[in-house]
Amino acid sequence: MAQDDVFKKIVSHCKEYGFVFPSSDIYDGLAAVYDYGQNGVELKNNIKQYWWQSMVLLHENIVGIDAAIFMHPTVWKASGHVDAFNDPLIDNRDSKKRYRADNLIEDQIGKYEEKIDKEVKKGAKKFGERFDEAQFRATNPRVIANQQKRDELHARYAEAMQGPDLVALRQIIEDEGIADPVSGSKNWTDVRQFNLMFSTEMGSLSDATNKIYLRPETAQGIFVNYLNVQKTGRMKLPFGIAQIGKAFRNEIVARQFVFRMREFEQMEMQFFCQPGTEMKWFEYWKRVRLAWHEALGMGDENYRYHDHEKLAHYANAATDIEFKMPFGFKEVEGIHSRTDYDLSQHEKYCGRSIKYFDPDTQESYTPYDVETSIGVDRMFLSVMCHAYTEETLENGETRVVLKLPEALAPVKCAVFPLDKKDGLPEIAHEVVDELKFHFNTHYGDPKDSIGKRYRRQDAIGTPFCVTVDHDTPKDRKVTLRYRDTMEQQRVDIADLRSLIENRVSVTSLLKRLGAQIAGWDK
Ligand code: GAP
């Protein structure tokens, strides 16, 4: 199945099974804004719990905060967002559609890469076992020509983005003959800068002095509280502050479902350290964050690092962790070495000292900061994309199953009485009442066949189903069914909790991760 079709199926599955709805759906939605339904919110909460606990439980020197979305307007002047948080946009005069100029050029670079990959695949097919990819890439004339075009374009693009140089970006679009992906028209306007922050007014007057912004990143709430936390928590460097919260960006091109939204959620941690130690911590957090992803068991080969060539105005090093989505490897998380930029800027703008007095060296200095920043919604999307599976069963039927990491599944266990009679519903309720205190357990009404009930749980990714049948009143045993293998096992009711709990708890993930990172150099 084409990857585009797979993605469309995932989007409609999300709606059909209560994971994600378009915002204000009865009014036909609001562009790039989404609501999470009854199953989506559980999955999202599990992701957040895993992240939060991996920060504040596994690291003794990390604490959390919850800052307000509205902040003093000077925060955004100091942080550079008022002046520099822009995207280069371009309009097509014929289609009246608006695009990010950088995205159009990146897509063009991607096209050269696709051509190269196609040639390589053809070569591999032709030469079979004898195929030497490195040699093929170095000698095949079509690969060499496309590689050269790709590299030249990439170099021009990287240089144009440095300023950014808007005229140069426009010229690249012209020279490459890039057309509107929808209409095919090449009738472009000039490239302009577009600030991504949403603004509103505070209080009853709407003059410029009352203008405030909806935060475009949660990080600034941490920087302006750095001193409060350091002093009240008597924190010694190095230490981190973690936060989960909403962020807002007026994205020019919001696309790919919850991948690029106008209202989204971030999980960010700022790790403050001694100047000069930031690269060591940058490397540490790169490794720890990748290990966090890998502990979920979604395939190590589906992740890769992407080091930034163009650095944000505040960073001296930056890497993305990318995940293989149906539309290619895409950024899910960023790790940025932000130097002392933010704290120094706030110090300058607020006129107060935000310096740290180091009791060991008896010196005062502004700490450096290494940030880990992951979007909850992108993480959610990567989990959904990886989990969505269509299987053909022996009887020829198709089974749609979400093979979610068990600890993230919205519902961990569903309990079904086989029948309405003979006290089976009462026993099923008893089982639910025992298990529900330990993990999310649902009761499944016997109005549908057992097969239908299994399918519905498969479709929302429930790892365990329990069936109470006519023998249960006699032997206190039930059938435990495993989602991925569909294997069934007869077990004592008394053993259910221990059989399920270890596999579905976030604690089990944390233990796996904790054991892995325990020995890492800090
Ligand atoms: N504080 C640094 C920062 O905000 P970023 O790379 O702009 O850095 C961090 O964003 C993460 O936030 C991204 O890796 C992505 O997961 C998420 N994110 C950013 N913009 C988003 C959007 N429009 N919709 C959904 N998630 C977004």
Largest sheet: 7 strands, mixed
- Extract low-pLDDT stretches: none
The CATH H-level homologous superfamily of the largest domain: Bira Bifunctional Protein, Domain 2
Side by side, the strands of the main sheet go 3-9-10-16-13-12-11
Rg calculated over all Cα atoms? 26 Å
CATH class of the largest domain: Alpha Beta
Mean pLDDT: 94
Number of domains: 3
Into which percentage range does the β-strand content fall?
15-25%
Q: Roughly how many Å apart are the termini?
A: 45 Å
InterPro entries: aa-tRNA-synt_IIb, aa-tRNA-synth_II, aa-tRNA-synth_II/BPL/LPL, Anticodon-bd, Anticodon-bd_dom_sf, Gly-tRNA_synthase/POLG2, Gly_tRNA_ligase_bac, GlyRS-like_core
GO molecular function: ATP binding; bis(5'-nucleosyl)-tetraphosphatase (asymmetrical) activity; glycine-tRNA ligase activity
Catalytic activity: tRNA(Gly) + glycine + ATP = glycyl-tRNA(Gly) + AMP + diphosphate
Family: Belongs to the class-II aminoacyl-tRNA synthetase family.
Characterize the structure shown:
Belongs to the class-II aminoacyl-tRNA synthetase family. ATP binds at residues 249-251, 259-264, 331-332, 375-378. The chain is α+β, with helices and mostly antiparallel strands and 522 residues long. It folds into 3 domains: 3-85 and 201-386, BirA Bifunctional Protein, domain 2 (2-Layer Sandwich); 89-195, no CATH class; 410-503, Rossmann fold (3-Layer(aba) Sandwich). The chain is built from 18 helices and 23 strands. Strand 12 (317-325) and strand 13 (328-339) form a beta hairpin. The longest helix is centred in the N-terminal third of the chain and has 27 residues, at 101-127. Glycyl-adenosine-5'-phosphate binds next to strand 10, strand 13, strand 16 and helix 13.
